[in-house]
Amino acid sequence: MTGYRQVLAVPGLASLLGVSLLARTAITADVMALTMYVVLGLGMSYTAAGGVAAALTAGVALGGPLLGGMIDRRGLRAVLLVTIGAQVVFWLSVPALPYGLLLGAAFAAGLLMVPAQPVTRQAIAAMTTAGQRRAAFALESVQGELSYIVGPAIVILCAANLSPGVVAWGVGAAIVVGGAGIALLDPPLRAADEAGAGAAGRPPRREWLGSGMIAVLTMAFGTTMLLGGIDLAIVAALEEAGQVSWAAAVVTVLGVTSVIGGLVYGALSRSLPTWLLLGLLGLLTVPAGLAHDWRWLCVAVVGSGLLTAPTLSTLADAVSRLAPASVRGEATGLQSSALSAGFALGAPVAGIAIDASAPAGGFAAAGLAGVAAALTGLLLSRRSPARTRSPLGGPGLAGAPGPEPRGADARPGVSP
Question: Where are the transmembrane segments (predicted)?
Answer without folding.
Answer: 35-63, 75-93, 166-185, 212-238, 244-265, 272-288, 294-316, 337-354, 360-380
